[in-house]
C-alpha cells in the first residue's frame, strides 16, 4: 500500500455547542497522518500545522467573547518545530481592524499571551525561553481587568491591565488571523480547551488532568 498522508477538515467541539473548527480548503488542512504514520506528540495523536497556510476556523466562537470585560480562559497542548518565525497556536481577531486581538503562541522563543481591546489598550505576558519539538501545556486567562499565563503549571506572569470592550468576528487555531492572516503555527496542537468563564480556581485540577494524559511535566 502507498504511504499516504491524512488531513483534518474538522476538529469537533466536544462541549455539545457545535462550534467545530473547520478547514474546507484541502490545501490548508493540517496533517494527522504523515506518510502512513499517525502524527504524535508525547506518543499520542496530534495535529501538525505546516507554518505556511494551515488553519482551523470556528468563527461562531468569536461572538461568545465579544463585549466588555469578557473572559477568555484556555488550555492547550502544543509543540513548536522552529523559532525562525512567530508561531501562533490560537487567536481571536477582527476582519476589519487589527484591534481587538487575543492570541497565544511562540514569539521570539517565548510563550506569549496577548490581549488588546477595541481602544488599543493592550498587555502581554511572556514565559522564559522554550525548546523546539517539546510539548508545552499552556494556560492563559483574562477577565478584562487582570491577565495570567502558566506554562507547564508554572506561573509565567500576571498583569492588571484594564482592557475593556472587545468585538471579535474570527477565531482561529494555527495562525494570527485579523485583517490579514500571519504567524502560521509551525508545530503540532494536541489539545485545546476554551472557556468563557474564569477557570483560575480550577486551573491546577485541569492541568493535572491534562498532564495525566500527556506526561509533559
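^ Assign residues to that structure.
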Amino acid at each position: 500500500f502507498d504511504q499516504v498522508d491524512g488531513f483534518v477538515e474538522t476538529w469537533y467541539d466536544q462541549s455539545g455547542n457545535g462550534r467545530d473548527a473547520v478547514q474546507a480548503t484541502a490545501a490548508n488542512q493540517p496533517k494527522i497522518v504523515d506518510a502512513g504514520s499517525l502524527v504524535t506528540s508525547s506518543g499520542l495523536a496530534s495535529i501538525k500545522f505546516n507554518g505556511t497556510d494551515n488553519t482551523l476556523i470556528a468563527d461562531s466562537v468569536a461572538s461568545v467573547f465579544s463585549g466588555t470585560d469578557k473572559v477568555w480562559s484556555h488550555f492547550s497542548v502544543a509543540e513548536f518545530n522552529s523559532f525562525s518565525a512567530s508561531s501562533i497556536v490560537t487567536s481571536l481577531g477582527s476582519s476589519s481592524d487589527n484591534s481587538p486581538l487575543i492570541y497565544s503562541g511562540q514569539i521570539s522563543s517565548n510563550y506569549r499571551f496577548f490581549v488588546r481591546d477595541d481602544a488599543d489598550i493592550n498587555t502581554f505576558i511572556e514565559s522564559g525561553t522554550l525548546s523546539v519539538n517539546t510539548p508545552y501545556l499552556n494556560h492563559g486567562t483574562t477577565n478584562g481587568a487582570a491577565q495570567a499565563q502558566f506554562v507547564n503549571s508554572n506561573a509565567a506572569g500576571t498583569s492588571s491591565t484594564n482592557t475593556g470592550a472587545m468585538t471579535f468576528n474570527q477565531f482561529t487555531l494555527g495562525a494570527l488571523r485579523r485583517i490579514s492572516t500571519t504567524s502560521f503555527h509551525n508545530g503540532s496542537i494536541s489539545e485545546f480547551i476554551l472557556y468563557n468563564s474564569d477557570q483560575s480556581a480550577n486551573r491546577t485540577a485541569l492541568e493535572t488532568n491534562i498532564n495525566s494524559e500527556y506526561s509533559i511535566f
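The longest strand covers residues 186-195.
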